[in-house]
């Protein structure tokens, strides 16, 4: 089954962009990876890579067969694993989530684990950009992340819910003009290296406002806490896990109508070829139903 092993190495090179990085991923030497790729090229009768020093990128022929190899290996992996009893999930699943999704996801996963004893699930948290790259690279099977409208090769995206962006101020702030409030109060900014922070920055530019940046933080909860203590104002998505009607220290104001709809989209990004798609579909469905229950509390 050497050709199967070589195909797995081929995917590692395609995803990591060099023989040396792929070697680390598949626990081989760089020389062994190079030999395997030469053998695979001989097997297929054509070159598959553009080689430049340490780098090795897929050429047109390599790009053409990449989805076929992914599909073939997915079929092979399914053939190797005995079919579980009807209604049972068997195998290992790794799911990522941004911080605001993790609490609900962990509860759903713990319930699923108790129902399917042979199902192993590992949860990882991180930024949307990091998790999205890990899904694309095949390092994790699925992730609950912020949608950015980008299509990732070999993946599918399913919208779960939307969180509107709003101006959030201390309850003591007077006035209803978002632009005036932003210009006259210290601004607490959410991390611009994250998808949400970048989206907020674009909203500010569309508004024509250059805020008086006071602090930039990478946790939404910390930003809200500082706003509640009167430190400044902010623009944030209305997290679905926060009971906003009970946030008495805060004022929540809509953004100007001329911006149109401004929302943060949350959904599930998953590999098209992972084996436990029935399980991720069930997790997605339970998460969707949990949103209704949470809002009714």
How are the SSEs placed, and which strands pair?
Elements: H1 2-16, H2 19-26, H3 30-44, E1 49-52, E2 55-58, H4 60-80, E3 91-97, H5 99-115, E4 119-125, H6 128-136, E5 142-146, E6 155-170, H7 178-184, E7 186-190, H8 195-207, E8 212-217, H9 220-228, E9 234-237, E10 250-253, E11 263-271, H10 277-296
Parallel strand pairs: 3-4, 3-5, 7-8
Antiparallel strand pairs: 1-2, 5-11, 6-9, 6-10, 6-11
Helix pairs in contact: 1-2, 1-3, 1-4, 2-3, 5-10
Descriptive account of the structure:
By secondary structure, the chain is α/β, with parallel strands linked by helices. It is 45% helix and 24% strand. The strands form 3 sheets. Strands 3, 4, 5, 6, 9, 10 and 11 form a 7-stranded mixed sheet that branches. α8 links the parallel β7 and β8.
Order of helices and strands: HHHEEHEHEHEEHEHEHEEEH
> Strand portion, in percent?
15-25%
Question: What's the CATH architecture name of the largest domain?
Answer: 3-Layer(aba) Sandwich
Level-1 CATH class name of the largest domain: Alpha Beta
Distance from N terminus to C terminus (CA atoms, Å) equals 55 Å
Helix content: 40-55%
Biggest beta-sheet profile:
7 strands, mixed
Number of helical elements = 10
Mean pLDDT: 88
Question: What best-fitting shape do the alpha-carbon axes yield?
Answer: elongated
Provide the CATH superfamily of the largest domain: Periplasmic binding protein-like II
Number of strands: 11
Global Rg: 23 Å
CATH topology of the largest domain: D-Maltodextrin-Binding Protein, domain 2
State the secondary-structure class.
Answer: alpha/beta
Oligomer: single chain
| Overall structural domain count | 3
- Regions with little confidence, pLDDT below 50 for 5+ residues: none
């Amino acid at each position: 089954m050497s050709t199967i092993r070589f195909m797995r190495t081929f995917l590692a090179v395609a995803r990591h962009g060099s023989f040396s990085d792929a070697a680390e991923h598949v626990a081989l030497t760089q020389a062994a990876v190079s030999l395997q790729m030469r053998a695979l090229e001989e097997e297929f009768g054509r070159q598959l890579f553009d080689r430049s020093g340490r780098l090795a990128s897929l050429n047109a022929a390599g790009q053409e067969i990449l989805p076929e190899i992914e599909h073939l290996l997915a079929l092979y992996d399914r053939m190797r694993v005995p079919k579980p009893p009807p209604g049972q999930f068997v195998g290992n699943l790794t799911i990522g989530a941004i911080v605001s999704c993790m609490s609900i996801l962990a509860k759903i996963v713990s319930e699923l684990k108790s129902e399917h004893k042979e199902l192993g699930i590992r949860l990882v948290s991180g930024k949307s950009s990091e998790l999205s790259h890990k899904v694309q690279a095949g390092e994790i099977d699925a992730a609950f992340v912020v949608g950015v409208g980008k299509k990732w090769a070999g993946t599918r995206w399913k919208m779960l819910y939307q969180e509107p962006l709003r101006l959030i101020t201390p309850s003591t702030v007077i006035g209803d003009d978002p632009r005036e409030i932003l210009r006259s109060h210290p601004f607490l900014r959410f991390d611009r290296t994250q998808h949400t922070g970048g989206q907020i920055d674009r909203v500010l530019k569309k508004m024509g406002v250059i805020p008086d940046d006071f602090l930039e933080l990478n946790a939404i909860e910390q930003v809200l806490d500082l706003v509640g203590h009167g430190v400044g104002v902010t623009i944030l998505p209305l997290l679905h896990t926060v009971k906003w009607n009970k946030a008495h220290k805060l004022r929540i104001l809509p953004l100007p109508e001329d911006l149109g709809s401004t929302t943060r989209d949350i959904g599930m990004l998953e590999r098209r070829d992972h084996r436990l798609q029935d399980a991720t579909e069930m997790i997605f469905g339970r998460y969707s139903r949990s949103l209704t229950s949470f809002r009714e509390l």
